[in-house]
Write a structure and sequence with these properties.
0% strand, mainly alpha, globular, 206 residues
Length: 206
């Protein structure tokens, strides 16, 4: 049980930095409501849990294979960021819905949140650092311990995304459609910068 709570703490702390996924989550919540924002956050939380898993198995073949293909994942994530940013910048007029609307693109939002988060190796490095700092030795781990820590990371990350979504829902009642449209454009350019930076930094290391 202690391992689960350590995983929760780790997942929450590593989800805190505000980046492209956070901006995307806020904007999706403002435009389409709770379900869309939750889908983005859920995708990011699944990616955090995956990174927690390979952090535990950091010396195994599974981890090494994934990390050897990290450059490909970063380029894919960067392209995904650029695609999302262009859609945000050139989206049409924004209509604020005062009631829950039917929204069917949540699978795409989950995938976007997952891929973008997965393209950031700092999450993996963060889990390694936290595990080392807490003096957790997984050399003699078992499947139950691995499951508890990974599920804890998932829950901890999801807690942060729920907090962020509630903040966005609070803002939704305070702003108008013009503000959200401008927010989309500004956030779109910021996310575009993230995407270009990810690709250039990856290609520059080759």
């Amino acid at each position: 049980m202690l391992t689960f709570f350590i995983g929760v703490l780790s997942g929450f702390c590593l989800a805190l930095p505000v980046g492209a996924v956070a901006l995307m989550c806020i904007n999706k919540t403002l435009q389409f409501g709770f379900k869309s924002g939750l889908a983005v956050g859920l995708g990011a939380a699944f990616a955090d849990a995956f990174y927690a898993l390979i952090a535990i198995y950091s010396l195994t073949t599974i981890s090494n294979i994934f990390l050897q293909n990290q450059e490909i994942m970063r380029i894919i994530g960067g392209l995904c960021l650029i695609f999302i940013s262009i859609r945000m910048i050139f989206s049409g007029p924004v209509v604020i819905e005062t009631k829950e609307v039917s929204y069917s693109k949540w699978p795409q939002d989950i995938i976007s949140g997952f891929v973008i988060t997965l393209s950031n190796p700092l999450t993996y490095i963060g889990f390694i650092a936290l595990l080392s700092y807490m003096h957790l030795v997984f050399r003699n781990f078992n499947s139950q311990l691995v499951l508890n820590f990974s599920l804890g990371a998932l829950v901890g990350s999801l807690i942060w995304w729920l907090i962020l979504i509630e903040f966005a829902r609070f803002l939704k009642n305070k702003v108008n459609s013009t503000f959200i449209k401008r927010s989309n454009i500004i956030s779109g350019f910021v996310i575009l910068g993230f995407g270009v930076l990810v690709i250039l930094s990856t290609l520059g290391n080759n």
